[in-house]
Write a structure and sequence with these properties.
Blueprint lengths: L12 E6 L3 H12 L3 E2 L11 E5 L11 H15 L4 E8 L10 H21 L3 E8 L2 E2 L3 E3 L14 E2 H12 L10 E4 L3 H4 L5
Parallel strand pairs: 1-2, 1-3, 3-4, 4-5, 5-9, 6-8
Antiparallel strand pairs: 6-7
């Protein structure tokens, strides 16, 4: 985790719904380091103040059934209604900008993004629901995205796991009390430059 991003979670309960990967592992470690406690062994919607919904981040993998992800996140939102909370979807940047090379993956992620926005409308203002859309992110190996994205990334490189974690922490930060229904693209500008050279 980058030392630059520090938040105070004050013992907030954090649950994970979905798969783990290097980004998720680093996010959980950062949330613990910032005063959060990970809730394990219970349904993710039972007692969480923050729910992370982790979807596959690499094209070529099935993004998951959007209806099932929506249903699980909605159960969490209902459970959070009295006390408030946050739901953060970790998805691919292709949710907002489809990639011709990966039409099915793009469509699945776009459906997840639409469901996230519906939840934000339904459960605001008590619950903030957002998404982080990852482009090409490398750790020891490719964690998110497709190498082809780099030819259209204005920053000219893959992102790091630490940069990905900082974006997720932004949505978890108690000081962020007004942003909901948004996808923050952590893609080095890929979505902005995707149409070039075509």
């Amino acid at each position: 985790m980058s030392a630059a991003m520090e938040i105070d979670l004050g013992g907030a309960a954090i649950a994970l719904d979905g798969e783990t990967n290097a980004i998720v592992d680093a996010v959980l470690a950062a949330l613990r380091a910032n005063g959060g406690r990970i809730v394990e062994g219970a349904p993710p919607h039972a007692a969480a103040d923050i729910l992370l919904v982790s979807c596959p981040l690499r094209p070529g993998t099935k993004a998951g059934d959007p209806r099932s992800l929506y249903a699980d996140a909605r159960k969490a939102a209902v459970a959070m209604t009295e006390r408030g909370g946050r739901i953060v979807f970790l998805i691919s940047a292709v949710a907002g900008t489809p990639m011709r090379r990966h039409p099915r993956f793009s469509m699945e992620n776009a459906s997840i993004l639409a469901g996230m926005r519906v939840l934000a409308m339904e459960f605001g203002p008590k619950i903030l629901v957002n998404a982080v859309g990852f482009g090409m992110v490398e750790g020891v190996a490719i964690v998110a995205g497709d190498k082809a994205m780099l030819s259209h990334t204005p920053v000219g490189r893959a992102g790091s796991v630490e940069e990905a974690v900082a974006a997720v922490l932004f949505f978890c930060d108690p000081l962020n009390s007004y942003t909901t229904g948004q996808m923050l693209g952590v893609d080095g500008g890929w979505a902005a430059g995707y149409g070039r050279n075509f």
